[in-house]
Amino acid sequence: MKVNTYLNFDGNAEEAFNFYKSVFGGDFIANIKMGDAPDAHKLSVEEKNRTMHISLPISKDTILMASDIVPSMGHSLKNGNSHYISLHPDSKEEADRLFHGLSENGDIEMPMADQFWGDYFGSFVDRFGIFWMINYNPQAQ
C-alpha cells in the first residue's frame, strides 16, 4: 500500500506547488482547475481558476497532492499543527537542502541538528502554513 499526503489551500495551491516543484524538481502529473469540472458555470471567475487537483511526485514512492477549497460550496480552510509531512532523506546533505529550501520565508520550529535519539532532525512551517519535519537517520542507510 502507498500512502500519499493530500493538502488543501485557499486559492494558492498552484503557487505552493510551483514552490515545492522548485525544491523537489520533477513535473506535475496533474494540474486541473475547478473551471474544468461539470457545473463550472456556477462558479465565480476566481473560483474557476482555483485548483481542483494538482500532484507532484517527490520521490519514487511518494506523490504530494492538493486542491483549493471552494468557498461558494461551503468549504473553509483551517490550518493547524494536527499534521506534518515527515520527510526521510538519504543523506544529511539532502536533509539540509530540503530543510533550507522548504523553510524559506517560513517559521522554523527546530533548526536541523543532531538529536539525542541519534537522528539529524528539524521542523518548520512553510510560508503556505504547511507543517514539515525533516529526519535523517544515519543508521537506516
Automatic annotation (TrEMBL):
Q: Which InterPro entries match?
A: Glyas_Bleomycin-R_OHBP_Dase (IPR029068), PhnB-like (IPR028973)
Q: Which residues cross the membrane?
A: none
Pfam families (UniProt xref) = 3-dmu-9_3-mt
PhnB-like domain residues are: 2-134
Name the PANTHER family on file.
PROTEIN YJDN (PTHR33990:SF1), PROTEIN YJDN-RELATED (PTHR33990)
Its recorded name reads VOC family protein
Print the organism lineage: Bacteria, Pseudomonadati, Bacteroidota, Flavobacteriia, Flavobacteriales
